[in-house]
Write a structure and sequence with these properties.
This protein has about 90 residues and is an alpha+beta fold. The protein contains two helices and six strands. Strands 1, 2, 3, 4, 5 and 6 form a six-stranded antiparallel sheet that branches. The two termini are about 25 Å apart.
Length: about 90
């Protein structure tokens, strides 16, 4: 499984969809080029924000210092997955 690929055999849990969120323009371009939808989260402060990498609470329990591996990534905030959107920002699903 490559970087950014999702293991669909893994059970989805709230702690698996909640955590620290990052945004990388480089990662965003890679995901776009692969035809992936954009991802948005509801932050703990109530804002909806786009992100490219979620370091889940489950992952942080194992490695508390885990961060997005892209050098241009910046921290968006703490929150939970909210929805997908297409390249034009239209909500998917």
């Amino acid at each position: 499984m490559g970087k950014g690929d999702f293991d669909f055999k893994q059970k989805l849990t709230e702690s698996g969809l909640t955590g620290k969120l990052y945004y990388s323009k480089k990662q965003w371009r890679e995901q776009r080029d692969k035809g992936r939808d954009r991802t948005f989260a509801l932050l703990t402060n109530g804002q909806l924000k786009e992100y490219t990498e979620l370091i889940s609470l489950d992952a942080l329990l194992e490695n508390p210092l885990d961060v997005c591996p892209y050098e241009d990534a910046y921290f968006v905030g703490d929150g939970s997955f909210h929805h997908f959107a297409d390249e034009k920002g239209r909500r998917v699903g």
